[in-house]
Amino acid sequence: MPKLICIDVDGTLVTETQETPASAREAVRASIAAGNKLLLSTGRSLPEIYPFLWDLGFHGIIAGSGAYVKIGEEVVMDRRMSAEEISYVTDIYRRHGVNWMWQGPDEFCMSEGFFGSFAGAPNAEGSPWHPYYLQILPVLSTKVPTSTSKGLFVLPYDSSVSYEEFVEIIGPKYHIIPDSVGAAEGTTGELLLAGLTKDVGMRAAAKHLGFDVADTVAIGDSPNDIEILKAAGTSVAMGNATDAVKSHADLVTSAIDDDGVYRAFETLGLM
């Protein structure tokens, strides 16, 4: 029976050097040829998806950590923060010296010091993340948006408040989890409206495509994958995943640079 397979991007399908291992590309293509439906399942938003990923044949995407779902050319779900909600959080960011980036399906808006928070800043030639910078550059600005899917922030290490205190200040209307991309200048976090996680997007995609949740497979490595791993019919953690992520997986495969995706697909008979 065909499966709906939801694959994380960073740390699962794309390495720190912004490349996809040949074995993972082979596994994706073979699984699609076998009749399965494959979706990218990522904290990234649409502008952050490299063309080479779409060229593998993915049928759609769960983007923004569950805030946005697109299957083929049809937008199945698009949950965004309002201008008022964005302004509220941005004001808190500014009061606490936090650098930020708002990430939506059609525009990215960041504080002027955002890239400087990272070692090997993406906007610097020679950085492993420079291809990422070039990918989002056409939609990048330093304004505050009027709507967006999610945000990424960097709380400085020398902040007067702890990460836990900062989460409390933001308030319960928002869902905050540690981000999978670390920064040199502080602790990173991913911010969405409360109730939005990748499993919400997976359920919407499954319903749209006519799959029972029991026939879904989720693969990931990061804290924002935990909810979808808990919800999927079959869950896979990468070998490079955190222990917390691994604890929610039915199968722990090898690391991304050790053919992790291919070995998982082979073990589960997905090719």
TrEMBL record:
Top-level division of the source organism's lineage: Bacteria
GO cellular component: cytosol
GO molecular function term, any single one: magnesium ion binding
Pfam families in UniProt: Hydrolase_3
Record InterPro entries: HAD-like_sf (IPR036412), HAD_sf (IPR023214)
Name the UniProt record assigns to this protein: Hydrolase
Taxonomy of the source species: Bacteria, Bacillati, Actinomycetota, Actinomycetes, Actinomycetales
